[in-house]
TrEMBL record:
Residues 1-231 form the tRNA methyltransferase TRMD/TRM10-type domain. Belongs to the RNA methyltransferase TrmD family. S-adenosyl-L-methionine binds at G113, L137, G138, D139, Y140, V141, L142. Specifically methylates guanosine-37 in various tRNAs. This is tRNA (guanine-N(1)-)-methyltransferase. The gene is trmD. It catalyses: guanosine(37) in tRNA + S-adenosyl-L-methionine = N(1)-methylguanosine(37) in tRNA + S-adenosyl-L-homocysteine + H(+). Keywords: Cytoplasm, Methyltransferase, S-adenosyl-L-methionine, Transferase, tRNA processing.
Amino acid sequence: MRLDYLSIFPAYFDVLDISLVGKAAINGLVEIHAHDLRDWTHDRHRTVDDTPCGGGAGMVMKPDPWGEAFDEIIGTESDPSVHVIFPAPSGTPFTQSAAAELSSAQRIVFCCGRYEGIDHRVIDYARSMWTVHEVSLGDYVLNGGEVAALAITEAVVRLVPGFMGNPESLAEESFSAGQDGLLEYPLFTRPVSWRGLDVPEVLMSGHHGRIASWRRDESVRLTRERRPDLTDSDSSGIH
Ligand SMILES: N#Cc1ccccc1Cn1ccc2ccc(-c3cc(N)[nH]n3)cc21
């Protein structure tokens, strides 16, 4: 899997060299390439923004540098196997199933906007050439797309076959298909008693049936408390 990042702050992605994603890069599972969008400007000030047509606050990212960067980084041929991701507050909420789908992609290009966003023609052009995803991390506004790109990268790469030492652990996580759309149950380890707080006795009983039942009950309780929106979905084990 090749991952490209287009941003006016490419140093944001240096962190990928020290994280587990960096390990995947060393193992050859992923290739990481960060690019400075200003490298595709031609004026002295390396300008990437301009005032919004129709007026309004803030600045909008000009289309020209994006188009030239696309030509060089992706090419000028249409290829639906290339996934181009535009993080945006107006995007579709990013989910674990979206991460799972992207984990089989061979090429992902993250377009990290700044200011008030990117000229919409850039997204329209990308849609005419590649598979585009406009995604939101959640109902809050970041200053740009870089943090979202890092979060999406981690969610996707950890699902790439061969990345996780113990792939079975993925099946028990919140939001994974194996959890019936339920939140993960509380976890405990040694010591059994810590600052007057004890591990639930059932977990020390060695009775696998009771443990499984306790864990499911806890998942159902937590999901009902914290994510009632998940309890109505068809995938959840509770209705
Ligand atoms: N767009 C926009 C915008 C609109 C108003 C105010 C500030 C911004 C900043 N911004 C510029 C690029 C960009 C990319 C992604 C997010 C983003 C994603 C999630 N889930 N929250 N925020 C924000 C981004």
